[in-house]
Amino acid sequence: WDMAFLPDGAMLFTERCLGLSVRLPDGDVNKLLGMEDTENYATTEDDLFCEGQSGMNGVAVDPDFETNRTIYVYSTSTLSDPPTNRVIRLTLNDDLSNVSDRTDIVEDIPFKVAASDHPFGDPGAHNGGRIRFSPDDGYLYVPTGDNHNSALPQAGDSLGGKVLRIDGDGEAAPENADATPDDFDPRIFTYGHRNVQGLAFHPENSRTYVTDHG
User: Fold this and answer.
1) Residue 159 DSSP code
2) For residue 163, what are the β-bridge partners?
3) Which residues are CB-neighbours of 76 under 8 A, at least 6 positions away?
4) What's the CA gap between 101 and 88, in Å, rounded?
5) Residue in 212, 199, 52 with CA at minimum distance from that of residue 118
6) How far apart are CA 163 and CA 127, in angstroms?
């Protein structure tokens, strides 16, 4: 579902209902982090699951990866009740064979639990999930979906239908306060979105572009 490149040319990639893997420069693939009911992954996390458009979605590499070995994924989890989407920080070992030190830096991105009367209205729909670090400000940008709930994009106390801008610990970028109302969750950078699944930065001026489906 997503990919990100390491400095040595290896490629991290996610598969929505399987997990996180890395393709090495020689073409070999190491399966790093598996979801529930998967096999042959170096590490398995049974709380991670897929349904509809949800699952193991985005992956991003920390700007300081060469010194801290840190990567991030966006995945749906049953650690909350009801389930939520989470941004998970991991440490990738030196030989690219396993991950460790899981820390969930965002735990409360809404997940669509029940089906609704919408086109493609199954559980897990409008889930967002792309994540990227800005080359300009160094923050992690996290797009989310509205779960087919039109109230969420305008709700300042919900992370649904937003783009978040956070640091590597999940803390809000202070500049977010300049772009959102005072009573909004400070992690919110932009709001009013339907289902953001694409995110990129202009190569010359680092302006943020998102793909908002629908």
Assistant:
1) -
2) 143, 190
3) 48, 49, 50, 51, 54, 55, 83, 84, 85, 86, 111, 124, 127
4) 10
5) 52
6) 12
> Which of 128, 121, 103 has the alpha carbon at shortest distance from 188?
128
Q: What is the pTM of this model?
A: 0.97
Q: What is the DSSP string of 88-130?
A: EEEEE-TTSS-EEEEEEEEEEEE---S--SSTT-STT-S----
DSSP, collapsed to helix, strand or coil, labels residue 32 as strand
Query: If you search the block for the tokens 């096999």, which residue do you land on?
Result: 39
3-state DSSP call for residue 175?
helix
The predicted-structure confidence for 95-110, as pLDDT tens digits, reads as follows 999 999 999 999 999 9
Contacts of 205 (CB under 8 A, 6+ apart): none
**Per-residue pLDDT tens over the stretch 113-163:** 999 999 989 999 999 999 999 999 999 999 999 999 999 999 999 999 999
Yes or no: say if 85 and 111 are a contact pair by the CB < 8 Å rule. Answer: yes
**Is residue 177 helix, strand or coil?**
helix
- With vertex at residue 191, the alpha carbon angle to CA 167 and CA 154, rounded to the nearest 5 degrees, is 130
